[in-house]
Amino acid sequence: MEFGMNTELFQTVSSRFQSEADCIEAIIAMKWPHGFVCPRCAYTEYTRLSSRRLPLFECGKCGYQASPLVGTIFERTHLPLVKWFRALELFLLPDGISALRLSQVIEVTYKTAWLMLHKIRHTLGECDARELLSGDVKVNCDQYAYDSLRYHPAAQPYATPVVAGCTVTEFGEPERVKIQLISDTRGDGQRANKHDVAAFIHKHVDVPTSTVQSYPLAFRLYLPLRKEVRAAWTSLKRTYVALGLTHLQAYLNEYTVRRDLRMSFSEEEMRQNLLQMCVSIPAIPYRQLIKRHQNAHHQKPYFAAAA
C-alpha cells in the first residue's frame, strides 16, 4: 500500500474529527447512548464539569466524578484523541496498517504506534471471544503460513498448527471465522489433534445451538474454510511482511474481526462498531504486552517486520 493512499485517507479522517471535542463527544455518545448513568449508583442526573481538558460527569446523588475515558482503550492516554481516531480509521483498511506506517502517517514514535495497534488488537480479541460461533459450524485442523507449492514438511519452516472454525451461509460459504493457534512451535509438520479440536469447540462454539462438523484430516478439510486461513496469511504477510509467534494470535484476531466487519457492515457502521469495542474494553497495559514478549524468547526466530 502506497504512503500517498494513507495520506489521502488520513486527510479524510481529519475532516471528520477535527478536534478533541469532536472525539470526546463521539466517545460520550457511544459510552452512554441513553444518557449518563453513574457507574457507582446508577443515578442518571449529573453535572458536567468542563474545567479540565477532558470533561467529568459528577453524579447528582453520590457525587462520584466519572470520566468518559475510564474503562476504555483511551484511559490514561497522553495522546490527543484525534490521533487515536485516525489510527482506528486506518486500522480498518482492507489489510490493516503496520506500526511503522502508522507512526509516519499520524506522526508519533514507532513504539507509540506499535502500542496503539496492539491495544486495538487486544480489544478486538476480547470482544470476539464473547461472540461464539452458532448455527451450522465447520471446524478444520489446518496450518497457518502453509505454502501449497512446497509439499514436504521440511520445506514449510513457518507453517504453524491452527484450528479454524466458521459459520456457513445457506450456500456453504464461510460467514464468521475464528482461527486459533495451537502450538508455540512452527515448521515441524505438526497439526492440531482431536483434543485441540474439542478445546476449540468448547471455547468458541455455542454447542447447544449449533450443528458442528469437524475435519481433522489434512486431506479432508472444509475447503472454503481452508481458503480463509490462506487469505489470512496472504493479508497479514502483505502488510506486516512476516510475524513471529509472540503476538500472532492477536494479528489473526485482527484479521478475522476486520473481515467480519467488512463483510457485514458499511464503512460508517464499521467505524461505529470498532469505536463501540474500544469504549467497552479497558486498555491492556504496556507492561502486560512486554511480559508476553519476554515469555516468548524461547520461540523459534522468525525474520522481523515492521509490525
TrEMBL record:
One Pfam family linked to the record: Zn_ribbon_IS1595
Domain Transposase zinc-ribbon: 19-65
InterPro entries for the chain: Transposase_Zn_ribbon (IPR024442)
Protein name (database record): Transposase zinc-ribbon domain-containing protein
Lineage, highest ranks first: Bacteria, Bacillati, Bacillota, Bacilli, Bacillales
